[in-house]
Amino acid sequence: VNLIDTYYEFIHVGFPIIPLNKKTLTNEILLINTQPISTIHEINNYVILWFRNALELLVRISLKKRYNQFFEAPRNDNENNEFENSGDNTKKRESNENDDFLENKALFISALNECLQKNVDIHPKFRENRQEISPKIEIIYLSTFILLNYILAFVGYDNSFVLGMSVTIFKEFKVFEQFIWGDIQDQYDEMSIAFKRLYFSLVIFDSLQSCCYGGAKLLNVPIQGATEKLFKRDPENSKWDIDEDPFEIKCILQTLKLGELITDFVSNRRSVCDVTGQKLLWEPNECFNFMQQSNVDEPLTTVQIFHDFLLIKNEFTNNLLSIQD
Q1: Which of these, 257, 258, 256, 175, lies nearest to 221 by C-alpha position?
Q2: pLDDT of 267-297, one tens digit each?
Q3: Which has the closest alpha carbon to 122: 53, 69, 189, 76?
Q4: Are 21 and 243 in contact (CB under 8 A)?
Q5: Of 291, 220, 281, which Cα lies nearest the Cα of 254?
Q6: What pLDDT is attached to residue 173?
Q7: What are phi and psi of 187, to 5 degrees?
Q8: Distance separating alpha carbons of residues 123 and 169, to the nearest angstrom
Q9: What is the per-residue pLDDT across 38-73, written as a single tens digit (0 to 9) for each?
Q10: Which is it for the CA torsion 23, 29, 30, 32, positive or negative?
Q11: Distance CA 73, CA 197 (A)
């Protein structure tokens, strides 16, 4: 419960890794019988355990991270000596000893890989018992993979294996079929909205991985306009709202819209293979406009500024490329 509270207080508004509001998650999705009466109950217990472990890893890292590079915190020898000579600081360091292992790169990778491997190990049992497993457990299971991808993006660590395995697992669950062939606007159909949102997040992490490290995208699914269709509020039924606070929903939608824009950029990146230069000039989809403030008194958010910066940068690049020799 404490992990969930911390997640929704500090992390969820930045990016909805768990694509549900707190009330729906705790009062419905996590209400699963985990008593070891049958194989299904053992699977339920196993999935919830490693969902919890992944969530704990995320929360501990999120609260611990103080620098842009998680593994390269700046050090000052003089300050370090003073730190060691200070009794109060020494006690503080000892009290945080259990958390310091996360700043050790090898141990962090080991903890993350263990979470991934444990989730992959249970997949064959999912196949065997697919008809009997609750959609709630499937949501929790797939959410764990999104948690792991977010952790990697958060600390800036390149591990394409986690993304590749996540794409494979999502494919096995045929989530892409719901996203592509299902009515994307039928967002309050019981449970299906959560699967579509999870797949939407996976596409964004795939784009981010490709954008940051230069690899090819694994998912070439267009998601333009999906933010409004999948995450908008329903005045008559708040059960599937992404959050209970209207202001936080607005912040979440801005982040997801930025993810859409990054996906559009990565899917249409300029290529050196275009020797004619005819495709060098490219404009983002028409649905991407400068973010407008509904209230002039509201401060601009970092997400808004970066979103608009990407649009200005692309326009500037196009102007430079259009200059005739």
Answers
A1: 175
A2: 887 665 665 666 677 777 666 666 655 555 5
A3: 53
A4: yes
A5: 291
A6: 87
A7: -80, -10
A8: 8
A9: 788 889 999 999 999 999 999 988 877 544 444 443
A10: positive
A11: 34
Q: Is residue 30 within 8 Å of 48, Cβ to Cβ?
A: yes
Torsions phi, psi for 125 (to 5 deg) = -70, -30
Taking the C-alpha atoms of residue 133 and residue 126, their distance in angstroms, rounded to an integer, is: 7
Residue 133: closest CA among 201, 50, 200, 46: 46
Helix (H) or strand (E) holding 126: helix 123-128
At residue 70, φ and ψ (nearest 5 deg) are: -60, -35
Predicted pLDDT at 266: 87
Question: Residue type for 170, please?
Answer: F
Token pair, residue 181, equals 């062939």
Go through the chain and tell me how many residues it has.
325
CA 4, CA 8: separation in Å to the nearest integer? Answer: 6
Cα angle for residues 210, 159, 4 (degrees, 5° grid): 100
Place of tokens 């859409």: 260
Cα-based distances in Å from 54 to 115, 140, 209, 215: 6, 11, 20, 26
Determine contact, residues 139/194, Cβ cutoff 8 Å.
yes
- Alpha-carbon distance of 252 to 259, in angstroms, equals 11
Across 15-19, 188-192, 319-323, least confident range: 188-192
Q: How many CB atoms within 10 Å of residue 20?
A: 24
Lowest-pLDDT range of 88-102, 124-138, 160-174: 88-102
